[in-house]
Amino acid sequence: MDIHSLLDPMALIKMGGLVGIALIIFAETGLFVGFFFPGDSLLFTAGFLASRHLLDIRLLLPILFAASVIGNCVGYAFGKRVGPKLFSREDSLLFHKKHIDKTRAFFEKHGPKTIFFARFFPVIRTFAPILAGVGTMPYQQFVAHSILGGLVWTFGLTLLGYILGNTIPDIDQYLLPIIGVIVAISLLPAIVHFVVEKTKKKK
After folding, report:
1. pTM for this one?
2. Cα(first)–Cα(last) distance of the chain, in Å?
3. Helix-strand-coil percent breakdown of the chain, rounded to 5?
4. According to DSSP H, which parts of 29-119 are helical?
5. How far are the Cα atoms of 18, 74, 130, 175 from residue 41, in angstroms, in the given order?
6. I need a labelling partner for 172 at 20 to 30 A (CA). Which of 26, 100, 109, 166 fits?
7. Would you give per-residue pLDDT tens digits along the chain (203 residues)?
8. How many Å apart are CA 8 and CA 132, to the nearest integer?
């Protein structure tokens, strides 16, 4: 399998089927190794294929939702267990005790909305639950917003692909451009943030 196949949602779905999609969503929402998977476009494409009866939408929605929540919980558990051990070391080039205090303070103030909105940003959705664990965000609060965010993210994008697949004639020929737009939209906030920060530094 080459890197192109790993980033191609259609290739991933054909290769792994429903189980493969669920495992990828699980990995992308809580494991370090899953940050590069194309979660947004994967959900949309899975919904589109369900509109073509290649996947069962009745199974697809609850399984992907469950995978996204379980992935987040695993990420949280990892962060809570490993994070404090890392930052209890003496200060070094990579680790500083003040970082854990900043992480805790951040999740005390912004934890709920961070966990909810992180679902819609590539890479951030992978690391947010891990950092929530490091920052010891209250678990019940974490799970509640993880469920809410996971529900909107998985159901929203999957149903978007399913509905468009059922309503737009010959949508197959527009599938790649639509996926491209979804990827661009998901990356746009990160790009805007980068540009704003660069502008502030120059000023």
Report:
1. 0.79
2. 46
3. 80, 0, 20
4. 39-51, 57-87, 97-118
5. 15, 23, 23, 10
6. 26
7. 444 455 567 777 877 889 999 999 999 998 887 777 888 889 999 999 999 888 999 999 999 999 999 999 999 999 988 876 665 665 555 556 666 667 777 887 888 888 998 898 888 888 899 989 988 889 999 999 999 999 999 999 999 999 988 888 777 676 777 777 776 776 666 566 556 556 666 65
8. 30
DSSP letter (8 states) at residue 4: H
The amino acid occupying position 68 is S
Six-digit token pair at 85? 């051990």
Burial of 111 (0-12, 13-18, 19+ CB in 10 A): buried
Query: What is the Cα–Cα distance from 175 to 186, expressed in whole angstroms?
Result: 17
